[in-house]
Design goal:
Layout: E1 6-9, H1 16-25, E2 30-34, H2 37-45, H3 56-67, E3 71-75, H4 81-91, E4 95-98, H5 105-108, H6 112-136, E5 141-147, E6 162-167, E7 170-175, H7 183-202, E8 205-211, E9 213-215, H8 241-250, E10 255-258, E11 264-269, H9 270-282, E12 290-295, E13 298-301, H10 302-314, E14 322-325, H11 343-346, H12 356-368, H13 375-379, E15 383-384, E16 388-389
Parallel strand pairs: 1-2, 1-4, 2-3, 4-5, 5-8, 8-12, 9-11, 10-14
Antiparallel strand pairs: 6-7, 11-13, 15-16
Helix pairs in contact: 1-9, 4-6, 6-7, 8-10, 8-12, 10-12
The chain binds nicotinamide-adenine-dinucleotide (NAD) and sulfoquinovose-uridine-C1,5'-diphosphate.
């Protein structure tokens, strides 16, 4: 293991905080960085984490008390190029994990301001980082969170980042074609292109993790103390689908399947997210290598997930209704989907496959915090792909850090 630290950008977030803990627990020296903008976007949208979340200084102190290990906390905006460069110059990290982006598809579809803000800031942050690495830490390995949604739902198998094509008698291996489904997902395509380009021209070492939809809310480390809990989003703007279905089931609300529910996606347990990041860091890309790992463990349709949650409730003698509601998104509701996801398995990932016990445990977490649930934020989609909307659109104020 390198004696240089690992920087985690976006360390106050759903995935960033458990990753910082997991890397620290495995002996990495961790610098946790965030500008706390997500807490501000929550205030803008009138949303909040189901589980109460401590401040970063409180979390870091709780980790020291629990594990005896230090995590160094820095408040910093990745869109501040000077501050990013100063950070890289100060620590000369062996690896940087980049989670620090606006990551909600509905948020990016509210209106022009939210679309522009999402794309400008996501792309700018990654570019700042790439330039800082070129100039100050050319050996540092960039581990960047992309998304499976970059590919869309093509009628052919999805490869891991590249596809070999024969055309007019000639053959080449090229970046896999992308057809994403929101301005947010598009921002990740722009990042992927910038990473592939800078690996080619500057020799950046880069791993692009095209991650699927994450479910669950606990890892071995966050479970050690309530102050170590990560955020749990359940509302229509920030909540991901299986977590939302678990909250709906716990409260006896119908599970909101958008449209026919045949939309199929790759999914993974949050415990696998943190493990995939650790595996990627400990098996780095080489100089000039841009590699893509599809980071998910199983495919499910949205309707199939709703049925799994419903069956888990049945097993406890509790009934759940599934409600097909008009789809606020523009997406195929029945389609072919077969995405490869072998690279991380080859590097040693042992997936936690979705089990009823996991659904039960998420539902138990929800039951502990049920008084905090805002039913309006949970049930009714307020952003439509065709016409925008959203409570946040009311004031038209996009607050940037
Ligand atoms: P999150 O919103 O909970 O966390 C993102 C964190 O980044 C927040 O704490 C936010 O304050 C911070 N941040 C945003 N912009 C920043 C900036 N300019 N400077 C510094 N900090 C900034 O999101 P998450 O669910 O933890 O997702 C993390 C990453 O993983 C995102 O890039 C997302 O696209 C990707 N991803 C998430 C999922 C999922 O299911 N949650 C799936 C695939 C990919
Ligand atoms: N959906 C429902 N009912 C709901 C909520 C969602 O049917 O109540 C459907 C959506 O229409 C969509 C699917 O569930 O077809 C997934 O939606 P989601 O909100 O769980 O996920 P998505 O918007 O794609 O975004 C999330 C994260 C994002 C990440 C992405 C991974 O917020 O940061 O990039 O998952 S992926 O989808 O693989 O691109």
């Amino acid at each position: 293991m390198s004696d240089r630290p690992v920087v985690v950008l976006g360390a106050d977030g759903f995935l960033g905080w458990p990753t910082a803990l997991h890397l620290s627990a495995h002996g990495h020296q961790v610098i946790a960085v965030d500008n706390l903008v997500r807490r501000r976007w929550d205030r803008e949208c009138g949303t909040s984490s189901l589980a109460p979340i401590a401040s970063m200084p409180q979390r870091v102190r709780a980790w020291k008390r629990t594990s005896g290990r230090d995590i160094e906390w820095r408040r910093l905006d990745v869109c501040d190029a000077r501050a990013m460069s100063a950070l890289i110059a100060e620590f000369r990290p062996s690896a940087i994990v980049h989670f620090a982006e606006q990551r909600s598809a509905p948020f990016s579809m509210i209106d022009r301001e939210h679309a522009v803000m999402t794309q400008l800031r996501n792309v700018e942050g990654t570019l700042n980082l790439l330039f800082a690495l070129r100039d100050l830490a050319p050996d540092c390995h960039l581990v960047k969170l992309g998304t499976m949604g970059e590919y869309g739902t093509p009628n052919i198998d999805i490869e891991e980042g590249f596809i070999t094509i024969e055309h007019n008698g000639r053959r080449d291996t090229l970046p896999y074609p992308k057809r994403p489904g929101s301005f947010y997902h598009l921002s990740k395509v722009h990042d992927s292109n910038n990473m592939e380009f800078t690996s080619r021209i500057w020799g950046i070492r880069a791993t692009d993790l095209n991650q699927g939809v994450v479910y669950g809310c606990e890892t071995d480390e966050t479970a050690l103390h309530p102050t170590l809990a990560t955020r749990f989003d359940y509302d229509v703007i920030w909540g991901t689908v299986l977590n939302r279905f678990c909250v709906q089931a716990a409260l006896g609300q119908p599970l909101t399947v958008y449209g026919r529910g045949g939309q199929t996606r790759g999914f993974l347990d949050i415990r696998d997210t943190v493990e995939c990041i650790r595996i990627s860091i400990e098996n780095p890309a080489s100089r000039g290598q841009y590699r893509v790992f599809n980071q998910f463990t199983e495919q499910f349709s949205v309707k199939g997930l709703a049925e799994l949650v419903s069956q888990a409730r049945d097993a406890h003698g509790l009934s759940t209704t599934i409600k097909h509601i008009s789809n606020p998104r523009v997406e195929l509701e029945e389609h072919y989907y077969n995405a490869k996801h072998q690279h991380l398995i080859d590097l040693g990932l042992q997936p936690h496959l979705l089990r009823r016990t996991l659904i039960d445990s998420v539902i138990q977490t929800v039951e502990r915090h049920r008084k905090r649930v805002d039913l309006v934020a949970l049930q009714k989609p307020n952003v439509d792909w065709r016409s925008g909307g959203g409570r946040a659109a009311a004031d038209r104020q996009v607050t940037v850090a």
